[in-house]
């Protein structure tokens, strides 16, 4: 069982609210990732980090932002939530030579619904 | 450009019979290939991965996959299905700078 945690697990919120999805890992992994997953669809990488103070945008454009102030913590923020942000958000971490060959360890996900 | 296709969105097998989940990929480089499993309300967990070593890869829980470059396939198999194998399975290809997930195959196990 991977030691990577996401809170909240479920969130229902109104349009225009600011939200932060939390992700923490206790494995000391240098790399962390955020994915977006819609039902029946593939995961899309929206952000990743190689370490503290490193953040990069992923393959799918996202209005969210991330920060990496501590190794174990990689929160994702939406400044103004919209119904189009409704989705499942998965956090992952890895350690190794390259994110291309690393095994990723996933959290259980946050299911976000914006009304 | 990379892509990955999981040929079946749903697969149903009886308990004790073989499992075959199909995955085809395209890649411009020498890819790394993964299979992950996701049980309900849990995170994805690695089953196995291929990173240019042996083409037949053995994973956890009796699963294995064979990298076939000529067929651009990386199908996942298990000789005998168990009820606990019911889950969503994702094939993943990575090379260059991208990691691409398939859309997933939901495996149903019939008693």
What profile does the largest beta sheet of chain B have? 6 strands, mixed
**What structural class should be given to the helix and strand makeup of chain A?**
mainly beta
Question: Termini of chain A, distance in Å?
Answer: 34 Å
β-sheet strand percentage of chain A: over 45%
Distance between the termini of chain B: 41 Å
Q: In angstroms, what is the radius of gyration of chain B? A: 13 Å
Q: Report mean pLDDT of chain A, rounded to a whole number.
A: 93
The number of helical elements of chain A comes to: 0
Structure write-up:
Helices cover 0% and strands 48% of the residues of chain A. With 115 residues, chain A is mainly beta. In chain A, strands 2, 4, 5, 6, 9, 10 and 11 form a seven-stranded mixed β-sheet that branches. The radius of gyration of chain A is 13 Å and the shape is globular. The mean pLDDT of chain A is 93. In chain B, 0% of the residues lie in helices and 56% in strands. Chain B is built from no helices and twelve strands. In chain B, strands 2, 5, 6, 10, 11 and 12 form a six-stranded mixed β-sheet that branches. Chain B has a four-stranded antiparallel β-sheet with strand order 3-9-8-7, with no helix packed on it. A two-stranded antiparallel sheet of chain B has the order 1-4. At the A-B interface, strand 5 and strand 10 of A face strand 5, strand 6, strand 10 and strand 11 of B.
């Amino acid at each position: 069982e991977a030691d990577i945690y996401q809170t909240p697990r479920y969130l229902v919120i109104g349009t225009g609210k600011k939200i932060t999805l939390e992700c923490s890992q206790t494995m000391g992994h240098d790399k962390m990732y955020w994915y977006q997953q819609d039902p029946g669809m593939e995961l899309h990488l929206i952000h990743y980090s190689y370490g503290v103070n490193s953040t990069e945008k992923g393959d799918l454009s996202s209005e969210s932002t991330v920060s990496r102030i501590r190794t174990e913590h990689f929160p994702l923020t939406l400044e103004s939530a919209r119904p189009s942000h409704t989705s499942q958000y998965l956090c992952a971490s890895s350690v190794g030579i390259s994110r291309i060959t690393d095994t990723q360890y996933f959290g259980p996900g946050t299911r976000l619904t914006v009304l | 450009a990379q892509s990955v296709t999981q040929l079946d969105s749903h697969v149903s097998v009886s308990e004790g019979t073989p499992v075959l989940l199909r995955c085809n990929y395209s890649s411009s480089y020498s890819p790394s290939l993964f299979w992950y499993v996701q049980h309900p309300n849990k995170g994805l967990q690695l089953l196995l991965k291929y990173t240019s070593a042996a083409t037949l890869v053995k994973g956890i829980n009796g699963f294995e996959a064979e990298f076939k470059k000529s067929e651009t396939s990386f199908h996942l198999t298990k000789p005998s299905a168990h009820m606990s194998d019911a889950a969503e399975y994702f094939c993943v290809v990575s090379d260059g700078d991208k990691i691409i997930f398939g859309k997933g195959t939901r495996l149903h196990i019939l008693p």
